[in-house]
């Protein structure tokens, strides 16, 4: 079963708005990662946050991690139509070398 | 060009047939993974390998088999025992040493359809 649960399942916004996606997990982690998938393609790694970090930035991406609540959020600021994709969180640490992926959030950014 | 290649992009299988999906990487990564993705779903781990000649079952290994004879290659065979094999299959790789849960690099995927 998937450890990660993502919320919302789908998000539709206008270009220029911010998009926030949330992820929850169930067991202790070493790190939490976010990936992007364009329709019918492979996943692309976006950002990794370690269990001892609370916030991390990369360009227009901001990730937070709250280990007490076993949750993470991904914020995409000033979204663009090209950000339209599915976004997945993946937690590492339940078993050596394995990542457990969430169900994903489908983001649609309208021009 | 460094990366992961998967072939074929599309594969059609008749019921009762075994088929093999190819995955090759030239990133010199130790670990390789196979995932299955169903429409609107996340990724589920089928098999993974951290070193040549060794591999472990993931969460949904039944009906699948793998081999890891070379560091660069990790083929997946979908056997006739897999009851519902129609899905999108993704191969990934990562380094292990010093970062066992690090970033994974994904191939473009193979879409398998059972006729």
Please state the structural category of chain A. Answer: mainly beta
| Major sheet size, sense and barrel closure of chain B | 7 strands, mixed
The rounded distance between the terminal residues' Cα atoms of chain B is: 35 Å
Give me the Rg of chain B, rounded.
Answer: 13 Å
- What is the CA–CA distance across the termini of chain A? 36 Å
Into which percent range does the helicity of residues of chain B fall? under 10%
The number of distinct β-strands of chain A equals: 11
Helix percent band of chain A: under 10%
Helix and strand succession of chain B? Answer: EEEEEEEEEEE
Largest sheet of chain A: 6 strands, mixed
Write the layout of secondary structure elements.
The complex is a heterodimer of chains A (111) and B (115).
Chain A: E1 5-7, E2 10-14, E3 19-24, E4 31-37, E5 43-50, E6 55-58, E7 61-66, E8 71-76, E9 85-92, E10 99-101, E11 105-110
Parallel strand pairs in A: 2-11
Antiparallel strand pairs in A: 1-3, 3-8, 4-5, 4-9, 6-7, 7-8, 9-10, 9-11
Chain B: E1 4-7, E2 10-13, E3 19-25, E4 31-37, E5 43-51, E6 54-57, E7 64-66, E8 76-78, E9 87-94, E10 105-106, E11 110-114
Parallel strand pairs in B: 2-11
Antiparallel strand pairs in B: 1-3, 3-8, 4-5, 4-9, 5-6, 7-8, 9-10, 9-11
């Amino acid at each position: 079963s998937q450890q990660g649960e993502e919320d919302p399942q789908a998000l539709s916004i206008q270009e220029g708005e911010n998009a926030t996606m949330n992820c929850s997990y169930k067991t202790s982690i070493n790190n939490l990662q976010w990936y992007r998938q364009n329709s019918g393609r492979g996943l692309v790694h976006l950002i990794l946050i370690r269990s001892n970090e609370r916030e991390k930035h990369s360009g227009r991406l901001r990730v937070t991690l709250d280990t007490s609540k076993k949750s993470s959020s991904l914020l995409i600021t000033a979204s663009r139509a090209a950000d339209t994709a599915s976004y997945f969180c993946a937690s590492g640490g339940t078993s050596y070398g394995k990542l457990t992926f969430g169900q994903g959030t489908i983001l649609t950014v309208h021009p | 060009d460094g990366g992961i290649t998967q072939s074929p992009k599309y594969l059609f299988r008749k019921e009762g047939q075994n088929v093999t999906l190819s995955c090759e990487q030239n990133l010199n990564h130790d670990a390789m993974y196979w995932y299955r993705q169903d429409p609107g779903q996340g990724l589920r781990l089928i098999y993974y390998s951290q070193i040549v000649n060794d591999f472990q079952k993931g969460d949904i290994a039944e009906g699948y088999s793998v081999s890891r004879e070379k560091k660069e290659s990790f083929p997946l065979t979908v056997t006739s025992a897999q009851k519902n094999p129609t899905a999108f299959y993704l191969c990934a790789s990562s380094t292990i040493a010093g970062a066992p849960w690090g970033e994974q690099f994904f191939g473009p995927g193979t879409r398998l359809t059972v006729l």
